Amino acid sequence: MAKKLALHGGKPVRDSYLPYGKQFIDEDDIRNVVNVLKSDFLTTGPEIDKFEQKISDYVGANYSVAFSSGTAALHGACFAAGIKKNDEVITSPMTFLASANCALYMDAMPVFADIDPNTYNISPSSIQSLITEKTKAIIPIDFTGQPAAYDDILSIAKGHNIPVIEDAAHALGARYKGRDVGALSDMTMFSFHPVKHVTTGEGGIITTNRKDYYEKLLQFRSHGVTRHAEQFTEASHGPWYYEMQSLGYNYRMTDIQAALGHSQLNKLDQFIAKRKKYAEMYTKAFQDVNELISPKLRAGCESSWHLYILRLKLERLMGSRREVFEALLKENIGVNVHYIPVYWQPYYRRLGYERGLCPAAEDLYETMITLPLFPSMTKSDVKDVIKAVKKVISYYAG
C-alpha cells in the first residue's frame, strides 16, 4: 500500500483527462448537417445515395448499403447470406458483442475460433478445425484496424462454399496486400460510431460486389419492402404499390447521418495518417521497455490503426493488469480494454459456452491495455501517454 501511495501521491502527468477515443467534427461537417436540416429530406433521401456511392468509390466495391448501426449492418449481412436456425457461424471472441450476436439474431449459433497470438486476428487454422456441415458463414474481425489473413480465410471459405462476412468496423482505410479492405470479402461491414475513423453519430454500412446480396440488404433495412416493379410477385395496383417480401427491420440511416458521414470521408486519409504517425511514436517509445509488447503487423498489411494495444509481461511486473490500468487513469490517461472474450459474458454462459475455448484470446485479454489513439490528439498528448506508461511500468517493475 505504501508503494501505491508513493506513485499516486504526486502530480499526475496530465492535468486534464485524455479519452481513449473521440470524434473530430469541424465546421464543414456542421455545415453539411445544417444544409440537410434546411432541405426537404431528413431521412431516406438523396444524402444516403451520395454517402453510399462515396464509400463504394473509396473501397472499390460495386455496392454499398447504409444502416442505422454497424450491428444492424451485420444483422443484414447474415440475412443476405441466408443464415438460418441451427446454422453455425465461425467468428473470433476478441471483438465487440455484435460480431457474434448477429448470428444469434438469425437463430444460428456462433462458433468461436482462437486468435493468432502475434496479430490478435482470427487464426485460419482454428477456423479450419471448426468447419462442419452446419457452418454457413465466417465472420473474421479486422481487429484494431489490421486486416485478417484473407488469402487463407477466403481459400477455406471457397473450399466449403460459404460466404465471408468481414467485420471491418476497425478497418476503414486499411489495405491487404495492395487491396482495399471493403472489396476483399463477400460482404464487409464498416462502423461509424464516434470513436471510429469517420462518424455518422451511429451508423454502419455493408459493401459488396454481389448484386443479389445488395438487393437483399436494401429490403432488409426497410421492413423487407420493395418498390421496384421488376421484383414484384404480383401485378402492380398502381404507382403507390409496394410489396413486403421478407421480414425486415427499420434499420435505415437518416440523411442527417449520411451528410455528416459524407463530409467526414473528405478527411479520412488525414485521420488515418495521424493515427499511423501516433502509433509509430508509441511503438518507437516502447520497443525497449522489457515489460511491454507492442503490436505486430503482418507482412503486406496496412493497418488503419483504430486501436493501439499494449500487452503487459505480467511475469516481469510486481503489479496486476488492474493496478497498472488504474494507475494510468490516475495519471489522467483514458486507457481501456478491448475486449472481454465474447463467450465469457453471462448471456453466452447461459447458452452453454465455457471458458477455455480459445486460450490465446483469453491470454491476450488478461494482459492487454488500450492506449488513447484518435486524430484530434496532439503530439504533446501522445508524449503524455508515453510518459505516463513509462512512469507506471517503471514503478511496478520495481
Tell me the β content.
5-15%
Globally, the shape reads: globular
**CATH fold name of the largest domain, please?**
Aspartate Aminotransferase, domain 2
Percent helix range? 25-40%
- Helices and strands, in order, run as HHHEHEHEHEHEEEEEHEEHHEEEHHHEH
Q: What structural category do the secondary elements indicate?
A: alpha+beta
Specify the CATH class of the largest domain.
Answer: Alpha Beta
- The mean pLDDT is 96
Number of domains: 2
**Sheet having the most strands:** 4 strands, mixed
How would you characterize this protein structure?
The chain starts with a helix and ends with a helix. The protein is of the alpha+beta class. The chain has 14 helices and 15 strands. It folds into 2 domains: 2-23 and 269-396, Aspartate Aminotransferase, domain 1 (Alpha-Beta Complex), CATH 3.90.1150.10; 27-265, Aspartate Aminotransferase, domain 2 (3-Layer(aba) Sandwich). The protein has a 4-stranded mixed β-sheet with strand order 1-9-8-5, with helices on both faces. A 3-stranded parallel β-sheet has the order 3-2-4, covered by helices on one side. The radius of gyration is 22 Å and the shape is globular.
